């Protein structure tokens, strides 16, 4: 009799444990379903169009081809001092490569940048401070100039000057800036139509006046190089 009662108690205990385990199991399943409903794929990063123009600013180079993510983007090979029009690319991470005309196996310079939607950019291919080549990207401000004015900025690309800084002024007028380092771009300046510019740097003896034919409503980039540490030459790009 006592033995039978003990068996009944044991069966009741086992049954209650099984019920608890079942409840725990189903509770665990409920949590799993809840967690899986919370863990969803992240929203894709939006992409859109951007625009870039290419400039061959390497004095020692032949004509160059410009690639973005392995696709040829320059419609013609660009000789020294030439620039392209804007071409459309996709925003996000982009790899830029520059090669000699017709060469697809070896790049003279490669650089990667994250590109914002609707941005306007200029990629310069230039001789760097170690006598190699670099590809540097700068943003272009397309905001219209003030009424009756033009906007102009400067880029220092004379690698012969080393750490020597560039300065520029309006010919016969105010100083625009001093201390612009190599491979650095200046802010934009508002100038009058017909403005000409004088360039200077320590040790430079040959720096012809820069006459870009400034017109009201236009936006200009003047990049400056030279064939020696004693020379400065200005080259003008019209952005708009």
Describe the structure.
- Residues 50-158 form the DUF4397 domain.
- Pfam families: DUF4397.
- InterPro entries: DUF4397.
- With 240 residues, the chain is an alpha+beta fold.
- The chain folds into two domains: 45-140, Immunoglobulin-like (Sandwich); 143-240, Immunoglobulin-like (Sandwich).
- Helix content is 15%, strand content 37%.
- The protein is built from one helix and 15 strands, in the order H-E-E-E-E-E-E-E-E-E-E-E-E-E-E-E.
- It has one helix at residues 2-38; strands spanning 49-57, 64-68, 71-72, 87-90, 92-100, 109-115, 120-127, 133-139, 150-156, 166-170, 175-180, 189-191, 197-200, 219-225, 233-238.
- Strands 4-1-7-8 form a four-stranded mixed sheet, with no helix packed on it. Strands 3-2-5-6 form a four-stranded antiparallel sheet, with no helix packed on it. A four-stranded mixed sheet has the order 12-9-14-15, with no helix packed on it.
- The N and C termini lie far apart (104 Å).
- Mean pLDDT is 87; it is low at 1-36.
| N-to-C SSE string, H for helix and E for strand | HEEEEEEEEEEEEEEE
Instruction: Report the oligomer.
Output: single chain
Name the helicity range.
Answer: 10-25%
Number of strands: 15
* Overall 3D form: globular
Query: Beta-strand level of the residues, as a percent range?
Result: 35-45%
- Given the structure, what is the number of helices? 1
**What is the average per-residue confidence, as pLDDT, rounded to a whole number?**
87
CATH topology of the largest domain: Immunoglobulin-like
